Structure formats: structure tokens, C-alpha cells
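Regression test case RT-17, inverse folding.

Input:
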């Protein structure tokens, strides 16, 4: 498939998981991120995204790749958008996974990445509608839905097909840079082009980090399952 857990795990360094940040980490390759704290584990540096250091909520990087770690003021937590529970039109997890796998095969995108976008966008709610008018599982704006040939954004198979096609177009536009493609999916290509990178919007940076962490979590769970 187009992406793997290692590649996307590294891309999370290009964004800043906001809220409770206490340290700013800079690496030799130019990547930067904010984290709650760091811990040296052998030849690795473990970067925690929560002060409690919850299992799975950290990223390990090579110790010699870190240029400096700076203390920063605690930032207020980003507002959380709660998707209200709505009818799922009888769609089962297995059916959704089948649709995601099919769309992923068509566009050569890992189905787990698509599932991570669905979770971040709608929480898996078929009838979800945002305050800006985005609809369905992958939260398609009316204009985007029309461009992608989606006649009914509340039909799961159409929404997933349209959302995947749009994400594919963004990945192509940004040369398979997942962070930029996700940022453009959230804030629009115009914002990414304007700032020549992930826009300095709290919501967008938190969104990109959330999708990538969910993707890595899915891959880690799959590895554990195979090892059992």
C-alpha cells in the first residue's frame, strides 16, 4: 500500500500535538514538535504527548537526532468537537471496513489511514453534519462532494469513495506528504499553499496529529495481534 506505520510515524514530528505541551523538541532534520515531556531510554528519546505518559501515547526517536529540547509555557487545550450519536443507517463495522478496503485498493491508499480519517472526521457516524455543512463519514463539503461525483454524501459507499478520491488528489498534489495532505483535507489546499506547510491553526495541527496517531495505533494493534 501507499504508506506504512514507520513512515507516517515520522511525519508526526512535522506537526505539533497541542494542549499540555511543556517542551519543544528540534531534530537535526528540521522536524519540530511540542510534547508534554521527554525521557531518555537507552539510545532513544521517548517523547510523551501527555503528562501521564499513557501507553502508546508517545513517540521514540534516536537520541543523536535531537538537537535541543526547550521548555515552553503550558498551552491551553484545544477545543474538542463532539460528534453527537446519530443513526448509522444499519452500517456495520465489517461493511465499513470493506468499503474502506475497496476505496484504498482503488487509490492505493492504506485502508487504516482512511479509517483514521473517518474516525477523526465523523466518529464513524454516517449522518454526521458539521457546523460548516460538511457531511457524512469523511465530512465532505458540498462543493467537494460535487467535484468528486458524490450525489448523496450520506450514502457511505459514495462518501468514502469521494473522500478517498479527494485525499488521493491531495497526496498527489503534495507529493505523498501525508501531513500536508491531511492539513489540506482539514483546512483546504489554499491554507497549506499560503503557509508553505501545515497552517498554524490549532484545529488543523491537532487534527493532523490525531489522524496520524490513530493510524499508528491501528498498525501497532495489528502487529500485536499477529504476534499472538
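Golden output:
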Amino acid at each position: 500500500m501507499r504508506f506504512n506505520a514507520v513512515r507516517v510515524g515520522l511525519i508526526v514530528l512535522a506537526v505539533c500535538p497541542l494542549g499540555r505541551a511543556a517542551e519543544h523538541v528540534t531534530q537535526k532534520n528540521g522536524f519540530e514538535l511540542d510534547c508534554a515531556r521527554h525521557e531518555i531510554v537507552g539510545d532513544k528519546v521517548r517523547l510523551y504527548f501527555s503528562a501521564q505518559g499513557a501507553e502508546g501515547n508517545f513517540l521514540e526517536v534516536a537520541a543523536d537526532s535531537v538537537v535541543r529540547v526547550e521548555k515552553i509555557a503550558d498551552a491551553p487545550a484545544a477545543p474538542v468537537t463532539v460528534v453527537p450519536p446519530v443513526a448509522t443507517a444499519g452500517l456495520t463495522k465489517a461493511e465499513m471496513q470493506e468499503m474502506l478496503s475497496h476505496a484504498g485498493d482503488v487509490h492505493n491508499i492504506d485502508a487504516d489511514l482512511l479509517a483514521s480519517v473517518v474516525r477523526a472526521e465523523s466518529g464513524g457516524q454516517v449522518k454526521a453534519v458539521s457546523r460548516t455543512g460538511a457531511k457524512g463519514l469523511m465530512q465532505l463539503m458540498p462543493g467537494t462532494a460535487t467535484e468528486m461525483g458524490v450525489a448523496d454524501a450520506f450514502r457511505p459507499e459514495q462518501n468514502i469513495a469521494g473522500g478517498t478520491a479527494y485525499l488521493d488528489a491531495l497526496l498527489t498534489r503534495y507529493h505523498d506528504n501525508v501531513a500536508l495532505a491531511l492539513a489540506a483535507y482539514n483546512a483546504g489546499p489554499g491554507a497549506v499553499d499560503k503557509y508553505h506547510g501545515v497552517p498554524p491553526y490549532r484545529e488543523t495541527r491537532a487534527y493532523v496529529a490525531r489522524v496520524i496517531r490513530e493510524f499508528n495505533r491501528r498498525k501497532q494493534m495489528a502487529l500485536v495481534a499477529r504476534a499472538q
